[in-house]
Amino acid sequence: MRTWVEFSLEAPELAALGKQMLIQGRAHVGLAFLATIRKDGAPRLHPVSLVFSRERLYVFIPPRSPKCLDLKRDGRYALQAFPPHENEDGKEFYLTGIVECIEDPPIRRAILTETGIRVEESEVLFELWVDKAMYTILVDRDTPNERPWHRIWPTIAR
Fold it and tell me: Residue 157's pLDDT band (boundaries 50, 70, 90)?
């Protein structure tokens, strides 16, 4: 598992493409779909606001929300960026990993100061650690040869 900054150092081009897909022109806040694992083992999917701060990737979640309870119980997640407007290239960005619950008040204050976002005091802060990342575009779109092209990290030896 890697923090976002560690992932960025190992795969700078992929991390830059991913961050661009996640924040879509905003300074620090992005939107994505977050998949978690319910208590019964079934998947659960939620839209979330992401926060890039201190070169790391975070999410604030209300403490009683099902996704917060899922992450506290089983920290595994999958994250899919919202598709950009006029997504003519069929771009997608996907992450998997685990979360770490951050209970350090100075870190929380630093994130809020840097980004200028406002959250409820009770919201739980999680850092998203990266295990796998994938960026996809469609090549030869609208032709008989249309197919997805993937850039995957870590690179899988064939």
Answer: low
